[in-house]
Amino acid sequence: MRNVASIPAGTVTLSALCAALVLGASLRAAVPFGSPVFYPLPEPPAAVAVADIDLDGDQDIIALTATRLRVLVNDGSGSFAVRDQAGLWAHEAHDLTVADLDRDGDADLTVAMSGIGANGFPDGTGRLGVLFNQGDGVFAPAVLYQSPGSTFSVVSADLNGDGFQDVASTGNSFRASVFLNDGTGTLTHIGDFGNGYTSTSIKAGDLDGDGDFDLAFANPGISTISVLRNAGDGTFPSFAFYQAGDNCNDVVMADTDRDGDLDLVSANYYSRDVSVLVNSGDGSFAPQVVYPAGSFPVDLTEADFDGDQWPDLAVADPEGNAVLMLLNNGNGTYGTASTVAVGGGPTHVESGDFNGDQRRDLVVLNAASRQVAVILGNAGGGTVEIEISLAIVRKTNRPRTVDLRWTGATPSTVFLIRNGTPIATTANDGQFTDVLAARGTYTYRICQQEPDVCSNQVTVRFQR
């Protein structure tokens, strides 16, 4: 399941000529990808995330298995050194999310787990494990929190608007469990909200346009998506069910039609398709529109893979030994899927820019062959135009502050990314001051709509 917190929606202006060409296209060409490069996994995969964990300015890969982390450290060109960490927890891990929980400038991890009893089998209880980054991409042993039921999926976002990254999880408790952060990375469970059935794949994003993060999670057993609307304080008093495809395993949020609000997309295992549920603008959703997606789609991610600034879909199909690419037609609908060969039994897919060319690449976890596959994208294609310009206009040492200024973003709110991790939603007024707790090197981007509609990256260093 995909694990990165969704970024609030926005719109991007296209020229009339480009828009006409996109909208008039009846057939979309496949996005060119290079050949996959494989890295072995010690166990079957559980989840994958992308983040700059060692603060060197490029995107690394964290592959999760039941008992350990396999970290792929990027050299900046899209080649990776493999680093293993085992013995960080004593439970069965299922999912992870990335956020700077303790506000020290680096990316920490929260892992969703099932408790293991004395007999070595799951005991029906859940755990969240917080793994603090030591600053170099090496993680400390998990600080454990008990959560209701076996915990299958987890997401991080600022749920109560205090500037700290909180955590929400779901599993066979059938609800969303919310844990608020006190700013040091210490979590407090404040309640369980909504309803579902053996729930998976929880995501966060502003679905109703009121400036706070709402939640959605998939219910494969009853083929629905639960949508929970935030009261603004990290509680979720109201929820609704929406019909998705048969055995919907994964859900993501994306502004598929670029109207300024986040829609829902699910991968549906038994009906062999993906569902797109268009947001009405108030956090309610139109009935699903379905698109065929291979043999048994299990996981998906959204990004602009072809550089036209519309969100496309990449779907993991383990029976087909491929990732399916569904390109946006430029109006919120999707064309016929093309395939990218990625190896044996892909179960998880995520995107990033691993070689710094502003084009979207893929990372895939293959269960059958126990491999991580990295596939660099848009080989021989054009560059993706970046319309948002970001600059540092002032830096002070006491206290450590950075004044950022940007132009070119179009929605009412934008997302600030520090060292590869989303840290704040802020008004699109062109200015933000970040206060840092520790010395070190910090990189920034301003993003809208999804992580590939972003500014240039800027860097500042505090030596004291």
How would you describe this protein?
- The chain is globular and about 55 Å long.
- It has 1 helix and 35 strands.
- The model is unreliable at 1-29 and 380-385 (pLDDT under 50).
- By secondary structure, it is mostly beta strands.
- The strands form 9 sheets. The chain has a 4-stranded antiparallel beta sheet with strand order 1-28-27-26, with no helix packed on it.
- A hairpin with a 5-residue loop joins strand 4 (68-74) and strand 5.
How are the strands ordered across the major sheet? 1-28-27-26
Number of helical runs? 1
Termini gap: 40 Å
- Percent of residues in beta strands: over 45%
What does the main sheet amount to?
4 strands, antiparallel
Helix content: under 10%
Structural class: mainly beta
- What is the approximate shape? globular
The rounded Rg comes to 20 Å
Number of strands: 35
- Mean pLDDT across the residues is 87
Which regions contain 5 or more consecutive residues with pLDDT less than 50? 1-29, 380-385
Structure in a nutshell:
Helices cover 2% and strands 47% of the residues. The protein has one helix at residues 16-24; strands spanning 37-40, 45-51, 60-65, 68-74, 80-86, 92-99, 108-116, 122-131, 143-147, 151-157, 166-171, 176-181, 187-193, 200-205, 214-219, 224-229, 238-243, 248-254, 263-268, 273-277, 289-292, 299-303, 312-317, 322-326, 338-341, 346-352, 361-366, 371-375, 389-396, 401-407, 413-418, 421-427, 431-435, 440-447, 458-462.
Note the topology:
Elements: H1 16-24, E1 37-40, E2 45-51, E3 60-65, E4 68-74, E5 80-86, E6 92-99, E7 108-116, E8 122-131, E9 143-147, E10 151-157, E11 166-171, E12 176-181, E13 187-193, E14 200-205, E15 214-219, E16 224-229, E17 238-243, E18 248-254, E19 263-268, E20 273-277, E21 289-292, E22 299-303, E23 312-317, E24 322-326, E25 338-341, E26 346-352, E27 361-366, E28 371-375, E29 389-396, E30 401-407, E31 413-418, E32 421-427, E33 431-435, E34 440-447, E35 458-462
Antiparallel strand pairs: 1-28, 2-3, 3-4, 4-5, 6-7, 7-8, 8-9, 10-11, 11-12, 12-13, 14-15, 15-16, 16-17, 18-19, 19-20, 20-21, 22-23, 23-24, 24-25, 26-27, 27-28, 29-30, 30-33, 31-32, 31-34, 34-35
